[in-house]
Amino acid sequence: MTLRIEDYALIGDLQTAALVGTDGSIDWLCLPRFDSAACFAAILGDKDNGHWRMAPEDAGTCTRRGYVGDSLVLESVWETRTGTVKIIDFMPQRDATPDVMRIVECVSGRVEMTSTLRLRFDYGSIVPWMRREDGHRVAIAGPDSVWLRSEPEVKTWGQQYSTVSSFTVREGEKVAFVLTWHPSHQPRPDLVDPYEALESCISDWEEWAHRCDMKGPYREAVIRSIITLKGLTYAPTGGIAAAPTTSLPEELGGVRNWDYRFCWLRDSTLTLGAMIAAGYQDEAEAWRDWLLRAVAGDPADLQIMYGLSGERRLPETELPWLAGYAGSRPVRIGNAAVDQLQLDVYGEVIDSLYLAREAGLAPEDHAWYLQLSLLGFLESKWREPDEGLWEVRGPRRHFVHSKVMAWVAADRAVRTLEQDPALRGDVSRWRAMRDEVHREVCEKGYDPKRNTFTQYYGSKELDAATLLIPQVGFLPPEDPRVIGTVDAVRAELGTQGGLVRRYSTEGRTVDGLPGDEGAFLACSFWLANALRMTGRGKEARELFERLLSLRNDVGLLAEEYDPVAGRQLGNFPQAFSHIALVHTALALSADEDAG
Q1: Residues 6 or more apart in contact with residue 470 via CB below 8 angstroms
Q2: What is the pTM of this model?
């Protein structure tokens, strides 16, 4: 039976990540990077597409599980009729090559254990050649080589193109398994002691989490979200992947399946703000620096997303040999939206760099000149239609959110020049642009009969992105048009339980795609924040706490939620959802502190 998306937990080493199911199976892992080809792809197909299950013999799902303190070290516990056993899964921060470590510890009695490893390189399509060497099992295919060892050695054999281990643990006994990847043309890397690695991994995470400045009733949720964001960070560059997965569906059995293992500019301001507000200045600077490197060049070539190191070419292809999660096809790698025009990203980049300056991050001399270059391009382009924040695959339109973010770009330039007149720049020019954009949006993007901003000029449809209008400062929260927009989005895009969709998918949809999707979790957090800003604090808190209850047992959120089926949808865990959680929690806590 296919596990639900929320039945998985995340482990990672700040360069890649794995998903571990409640049944003890690692069903997704890309090596050596988040965006590398998967060697375990069972979550998008079946067990023959690669997985590594370790559990008590003939056991089902674990009795309980959780992270060790404030870390990404996962403990899963099985209570069986003969005894209790726990498996500790983690990936230590690497020195050279990635390791997946699984430590089996018998808590009481005696337990018969089985490990089944099916390595399938290139997204489950390649069965590697296996051999024994120096007490290891070695799998090789093309550029990939994986070594498996156990301490102490246990009975292991090949069976149906998999590697099986069977062993018994008694109270107090431990068996550690280490799976190590390295390029096949290089020699085996040095061995790492799994028990020392476990101690270091836990202490490193705990020390890092202790830096969080957050206090108050939502600290636990914020810490777990911040740890998740850190776990999605590609440490060598500071880039943050939107999710570690591809093609987990927005509708079960549908076609809305996308690759999210890249870095989106739409996340930039909110990510930076979350890191700064939570006290993680170094991470904020690393993200800012990644942003500056990624967007450097001709402003006309600015993309909506980039690879983990700032790569620009992310061609989209389909993998026909994978059946898809719960039959949701196609399975895609790469993302064709990289070639879209999204005018909002100019505002998001400029807003991020403005925020970095305001927060006192170490200045970068060329950052202001980059902003001027982006503004100059946007000045000539903001009147054009685009694909918008949600990367629609229908025709380009004059999306209201895109225009609002063009206003943000001009507004942040004006503010910067007013604060530091010595900087190069024509403040009157950007004021004129800001005023023109504002006037046009209020005239063409607002429906006075319904008292709401719409999805695009002339549209009757709504867009949850307009909930950000007061947050970015386009209009004050008390403006009747803001209050009307919040009420309209809530009424027309709302679902049972008070969550909201990002836009309507009924009839002839703006995104050009068939099918439906769930409530969008980031937008639902935006609604909670908008309710707070418009004076409805009690309703905001109720919605926020409802959203917290949707997290899985280890505190993780996907991109969307199906309120009818009561399950998570989309790529998992999703940075955008956790960023929105952090922002809303911090805002609600600040209101509480203000009394």
Answers
A1: 476, 477, 479, 482, 530, 533, 534
A2: 0.96
pLDDT at 591 over 80: no
CA angle at 8 for the pair 140 and 87, rounded to the nearest 5°: 70
Say if CB 26 and CB 100 are below 8 A apart: yes
Strands (E), 97-173: 99-118, 129-133, 136-141, 144-151, 155-159, 162-170
Q: Which two tokens stand for residue 324?
A: 């898809």
What does the pLDDT look like over 162-175, one tens digit per residue?
999 999 999 999 99
- Using DSSP's 3-state secondary structure scheme, residue 216 falls into coil
CA gap 169, 171 in Å, rounded: 7
Q: Which DSSP helix (H) or strand (E) runs through 453? A: strand 452-453
Which tens digits make up the pLDDT trace of 349-389? 999 999 999 999 988 888 999 999 999 999 999 999 999 99
Residue from 438, 261, 236 nearest 334 by CA: 261
Secondary structure string (H, E, C) spanning 384-428: CCECCCCCCCCCCECEHHHHHHHHHHHHHHHHHHHHCCCCCCCHH
Cα–Cα distance for residue pair 150/100, rounded to 1 Å? 12
Torsion sign over Cα 169, 170, 171, 172: negative
- Contact 52/115 with Cβ under 8 angstroms? yes
Residue 583 phi, psi dihedral angles, 5° rounding: -60, -45
Cβ-contact 14, 24 below 8 angstroms? no
Whether the CB-CB separation of 344 and 401 falls below 8 Å is answered with yes
Q: Kindly indicate the confidence band of residue 269, based on its pLDDT and cuts at 50, 70 and 90.
A: confident
Q: Could you tell me if 527 and 500 are in contact, meaning their C-beta atoms sit under 8 angstroms apart?
A: yes
The letter for the amino acid at 291 is: L
H/E element, 540: helix 537-548
Task: Supply 404's token pair.
Answer: 């609002």
Contacts of 196 (CB under 8 A, 6+ apart): none
Q: 38-70: buried (b, 16+ CB within 10 Å) or exposed (e) per residue?
A: bbbbbbbbebebbbbbbbbeebeebeebebbeb
Rounded mean pLDDT of the chain? Answer: 95
Q: Which tokens is 342 given? A: 């999204």
Averaged pLDDT, 292-298: 91
Contact 239, 222 (CB under 8 A): no
Q: Are the CB atoms for 286 and 238 separated by under 8 Å? A: yes
* DSSP one-letter code for 72: S
In angstroms, the CA 165 to CA 155 distance is 6
32 preceded by a cis bond (ω within 30 of 0): yes
CA 425 to CA 429: how far, in whole Å?
9
Under DSSP, the state recorded for 2 is: P
Count the alpha carbons within 13 Å of 265 in the hemisphere toward its beta carbon.
Answer: 33
Beta bridge partners of residue 139, listed in sequence order: 130, 146
Here the tokens at position 103 are 């430590």
Task: Please give the DSSP secondary-structure letter assigned to residue 477.
Answer: T
pLDDT digits (tens, 9 = 90+) for 527-541: 999 999 999 999 999
Beta bridge partners of 535: none
Dihedral of CA 176/177/181/184: which sign? positive
